[in-house]
Amino acid sequence: MKLKIKFEDVLHFVACLLCAFVVSAILAHTTTEPTPAIVGGWLAGMFLGVGKEFGDSRATGNSWSWRDMFCNFIGSSVGCWGGLLCYAIWV
């Protein structure tokens, strides 16, 4: 079985990655511990993804997609660690 990656999957991944990255980097510069930066970045990315999927589920002819949620999860997870790594490199 081949896994085919759709363009929409990439968009979900990148949008959540960027959101989590930016929030994580900002929080890493404003807190003394890494945990709030990681968790805050991840939550920001996931809230963005859940909001998008909720909007999709309410639109006519569209529905909730667990595949998109998985892409949101992976993007948020990578982004929050990337923001923290960026902070560690710049300091």
Please give a handful of descriptors for the protein shown.
elongated, single chain, about 90 residues, mainly alpha
Give the overall pLDDT as a whole number.
89
Element-level helix/strand string: HHH
Total number of helices:
3
Distance between the termini: 45 Å
- Global outline: elongated
Largest sheet: none
What is the structural class? mainly alpha
Strand coverage percent: under 5%
Taking pLDDT < 50 over at least 5 consecutive residues as the criterion, the unreliable ranges are none
Helix content: over 70%
Number of strands: 0
Q: How large is the radius of gyration?
A: 14 Å
Short synopsis of the structure:
This protein has helices at residues 7-30, 34-58, 66-90. The termini are far apart. By secondary structure, the protein is an all-alpha fold.
Describe the structure.
By secondary structure, the protein is mainly α. It has three helices and no strands. It has helices at 7-30, 34-58, 66-90. Helix 1 runs antiparallel to helix 2 (34-58), helix 1 (7-30) runs parallel beside helix 3 (66-90) and helix 2 (34-58) packs antiparallel against helix 3 (66-90). The radius of gyration is 14 Å and the shape is elongated. The model has no long low-confidence stretch (mean pLDDT 89).
